[in-house]
Amino acid sequence: MTHTTRRLDLGAIAYGGDYNPEQWPEEVWEEDVALMREAGVNLVSLGIFSWARLEPRPGEFDFGPLDRIIELLHANGIRIDLATPTASAPAWFLAANPTVRPVTADGRVLGYGARQTYCPSSPEYAAAAARITSELARRYAGHPAIVLWHIHNEYGCHVSRCYCEQSVLAFREWLTDRYKTVEALNAAWGTAFWGQHYGGFDEVDAPRDAPTEPNPAQQLDFRRFSSDALLRLYRAERDIVRALDPDVPITTNFMAGLSDNLDLWDWAREVDLVATDHYLSAAKTDNQIGLALSADLTRSLAGGEPWLLMEHSTSAVNWQARNIAKRPGEMARNSLAHVARGADGVLFFQWRASRAGAEKYHSAMLPHAGTGTRLWREVTALGADLAALGGLRGSRVRAEVALVWDWESCWGLQLGFKPTVDLDFRERIDAYYERFWRAGITVDFVHPGADLSGYRLVVAPSMYVTRTAWAENLRGYVRDGGTLVASYFTGIVDENDAVHLGGYPGALRDILGVRGEEFLPLREGEQTGLAADSDAGAGIRDGRATRWAEDLALDGASAVLRHADGPAAGRPAVTRHGFGAGAAWYVATAPDPATLDAVLRAACADAGVRQPSGQAEDVERVRRTADDGTVFDVLINHGPAEAVVEAQGRELLRAGGGAGGESGDGAVDGRLSVPAGEVRVLVIDPR
Ligand code: GLA
Fold first, then answer.
1. Which of 6, 77, 468, 551 could be disulfide-bonded to 518 (CB atoms 3.0-4.6 Å)?
2. Can you give the pTM of this predicted structure?
């Protein structure tokens, strides 16, 4: 999936962060670089917001300060991930081009003074971005310190969809390219409904705020168009850099699992190295699960290749309602959890905490209070920990289970006018992911059209949009011996949000061996009983269900659980169907966690998925395997008490105790104790 020729190889796990020296007088830079060396920093992302300094007036460039900081970093052996500065255009550009300002769906024009103030379809912005990118790449191509190019910053983070006139013109072009004739568009969008028939592409608008729910297919296409408009900008900058500096890898930082604005399956094909940013949600106390999900998703986007954590925070962020500081050891646990799941680099936003501006209360590697701080001690300890883990570079995480993840389904589920507001892409993904995380079963994420043959079990918790070709892909997978678990409201519509007819879930009915006549969603807070069928199998007991039920009939499948009461009383709630050489399970409700756990364990057993034993509940455990067969076993205790697990190997690292890590060298044979909040990395040599 990703290019294999242009690789980032620092000879160590990458460690560092966004470096914004333009916020500080040059006297500070020497201290910065000295402290970076002390902390073990080997890579910084430079120049992300420097456009106004580099091009102070239109077409006038000043690279003096950037030359100096690049040379200073180079002289100190710190490598550079050089950014194109296009995420924040200079004030002169907006003053001269006021029509570039983005417009929201309700017609508000966004002003200058923050960042990302541009319409993704603006030709003026594209031209200005291309010019500064060319100047930058021409000047620094071939510089030995520059080992990576960082295009822009978090595309679509603030403005992912623009509804200005320029965007409407670009949308029409995109639609003309997709449909060729307006009659094809009318058919795809179902414009016979509510009398929306179009006589020409020039009559089509963006799905602005309308009197009521706009055409769902139009909304879906606008999401696709908007992801593509940003991707076009990325490609334009990348191609400029590539032409001038062909051997250096190019990336941009995704927000995998945090933002749903870009179809990252498309984007991931366009980068040499997949990089992502991850921030904890301060309101949650089980952030380790969401973090793991983002990391697994990022690894999957990278096609299993190592990836880079481009940003996370040393402690609190500043943009949530209550910004909770990380507890001692938490930063190390977070960082090493990303490494465990395939990251070959750990970077932060940002190196030195800002004194002014919107993000001055955001934590950094070097806090306002300086080096005499817990945070600084943990930052230097983490640098040492990562240095000890250099041998993990390039090793892979292997999964037997894949969860289907598709942005089209995410966007489709966000459309209004559904059977219930309780249908949410992430809600079901998270419910299923958590069960696997707690069982210690590592999962990949897959696109529904991907080759599934390498997985024993494929789970589709939220595959609402199901193209016919994707259903065929799943059909072939199960027929050839794979095991599928599908949740409710999966396989319902095609790519235009048009229902697959003949009973639900239309696209998967034959595979699942069921036929749904009517959706019977539950009221808010309502629960129904689930009764285990006589041949449900070991481990599956009576339980409870919320959110969803269906008037479902068996059509070849057998019932595993049935609704005991409620609108679907007596109807199947969980079914299993032998299909070809494989099996397909249908979970037609939202079971309580213990019941979902039992169902997934039964499906894992059905599929021959190895289920780890000798685990401790709070210990996250992931393995990376090197090409020569060496296994790295990473164990992270997120709980409040010491945990003992079954383990073998040699201890490579002890970390996360708050006071800094130490390299272990003891042999572990049978049992390993992991103190509360700490991390252990074991090596198992190839036999
Ligand atoms: C994003 C951006 C950074 C910074 C951080 C703050 O990741 O890329 O510039 O704003 O958020 O958390």
1. 551
2. 0.98
Inter-residue contact 536 to 521 (CB < 8 Å) = no
Per-residue pLDDT band for 242 (boundaries 50, 70, 90) equals very high
209 in a structural domain: no
For residue 152 and ligand 1, the question of a CB distance below 6 A is answered with: no
d(CA 228, CA 205): 17
Residue 634 lies in a domain: no
* Closest alpha carbon to 162 in 102, 222, 115, 109: 102
| Complete DSSP assignment for 446-457 | E-TTS--TT-SE
Residue 60 known to be catalytic: no
Cβ contact 617:588 at 8 Å: no
User: Which of 84, 154, 308, 324 has the most ligand 1 atoms within 8 A of CB, as the residue to mutate?
Assistant: 154
Q: Are residues 378 and 488 in the same domain?
A: no
Residues linked to residue 531 through DSSP beta bridges, in sequence order: 562
Encode 275-301: b = buried (16+ Cβ within 10 Å), e = exposed. bbbbbbebeeeebbbbbbbbbbbbbbb
497: containing domain: 401-607
Total domains present in the chain: 2
Closest atom, ligand 1, to C-alpha of 317: 12
* Together in a domain, 268 and 364: yes
To which residue do tokens 């990278």 refer?
A: 302
Q: Which element (helix H / strand E) includes 619? A: strand 619-625
pLDDT digits (tens, 9 = 90+) for 494-518: 999 999 999 999 999 999 999 999 9
Looking at 607, 639, 668, the residue that finishes a domain is: 607
Query: Is 642 annotated as catalytic?
Result: no
